[in-house]
Design brief:
This protein has 139 residues and is of the alpha+beta class. Helix content is 29%, strand content 29%. The chain has helices at 28-35, 66-81, 86-89, 100-111; strands at 8-19, 42-53, 84-85, 119-128, 131-135. Strand 4 and strand 5 form a beta hairpin. The radius of gyration is 17 Å and the shape is elongated.
Amino acid sequence: MKNENKTYLTKIFYFCAAHQYGHDEWTKEKNYEVFGEDMFVHGHNYTLYVTVTGQIDPITGFLVDLGHLKKVVNEEVIQKLDHRQIEKDVNWFKDKQPSSENLVKFVWNVIENRLKGCTLHRIRIQETPTIYTDYYGGN
């Protein structure tokens, strides 16, 4: 498949959230052994990259209606995650660790079917200046 004929657009969003790793059924020592200092509540200033692909509208010259994209992401992601403790405040995480690996899957799942006129290509979440996670759908 040739990628030179595909156009990708990425919109960046920001949110702040806290999380805490661990398992209630484990001892404090076991949680510390596995998760270290991340077993304590801590927060991040996340950067979310939403990349879509599709056909460029010959009339507007746009790949996606940015107003629609912003509305979907704000309603389904930002309003649910910003200034929240992820594993406590977002039901999707009740049985999952609030890792960036799970966050990208959450974002994909809540926005994929709401997007119009484009196809979701990639979700990237940058948790720290040196760590980001990409997800392209699927498992």
